[in-house]
Structures are given as structure tokens and as C-alpha cells.
Design a protein that fits this description.
The structure is a single chain. By secondary structure, this protein is of the alpha/beta class. It contains 10 helices and 4 strands. It has a 4-stranded parallel β-sheet with strand order 1-2-3-4. Helix 3 links the parallel strand 1 and strand 2. Helix 2 packs parallel to helix 3 and helix 7 crosses helix 8. About 35% of the residues are buried.
Length: about 200
Amino acid sequence: MRAGLRTVLEVGGSVRVVGEADDGRALLEQVDRHRPDVVLVDVQMPGSGGLDVLRTLCARPDAPPAAVLTTFDLDDYVTEALRIGVQGFLLKDAEPDALVRAVLDLAAGGAVLDPRITARLLPRLAGGTPARPPVELTLREQQVLGGLSAGESNAAIGARLGLAPATVKKYVSALLVKLGADNRVQAALLAQGWGL
């Protein structure tokens, strides 16, 4: 499976796989050795499970963006992964172009969710989410949050709004605090629930 995934990711030349691991300990060693721009982790791994490894990885201050890449799209896995702080949840049966695009979006600071997962989460979120944000958002904050909702990276949001990526990053950090969201994915799901 890893060999096939490597081929899918590298075929166009825009992504280079710098390491592979068959268990959680080896994954953390590969991250330390190669300092990748993005880490993809399967939920089912020998030894420590993928979610346990992600807890360790996402707790690091210098952690690269991480996403779950799995065949298991169980709601419990998705919820726990988002709580841990991953920036994406992808399914292995996604189209090759979608996987490459997701890795590039993650590397650019974006957040990605397989559309099938988003479709399942939105109704649940809408049921427990107010029709409007619980706090007052400035127009600029709404624009940035709309970009998060669309899965845009900081650079893409900045280009669209005429802001430097560092300025967008500050807006995103402030929005996470205001909204009580743990990460970009949670903020994006909230924004989608509000129709932003």
C-alpha cells in the first residue's frame, strides 16, 4: 500500500515522499530525521495506533501539518483526530489528483477533509451549532473564516484579500481563540455550519 501511495503522490513531480514508516515509533523517527512538510498517518498501525502517534506528534511545538489517511472513516476516528489537532482527514480511495492536491494544500497551511466526511459532519454540526457565530466577527475575520471554510491556505487567503500570509496567520490564530476551535479544520466546519 505504501509503495502504491508513494507512486500516486510522486507521479506528477510536485510531491516528494521523504520517508515511510510501518509503525508509530518509526514514524516519529522519520519525522525527526527528515523534517517533512506534511505527515500522513494511517489510523491502523502496528504497535502504537495512528491516533496515539498523532497525539504525540501534534503536541510538539514544531510539528508539521498532519493528516489521517485511512480506509476507516468512522465518525469516532474523525472526531478524535480533529480533537487531537490534525489538519486533515483523507480516505485512501480518494482520486490520486485529490490526494496530491490535499498534500499541497496541507503544506501551504490549509486544512483538508474528504468531501464524504464533510457531508456527514455538517448535519451533526448544524444540529448543535447556532445559526450565527457566538461572537461578533469583523468583516475581515469573516472573510478569513470564509477562506478557511473553503479549505484555502494562508497564502491563498492572503492573495485573495491582499494580505501577507503572516497577517492571515494572525487572523487565523485570533479566530481559533474567538471561536473556541482547536484547529483550522474545526473552525472551517463551524464556518460551513454558519454558511460562511
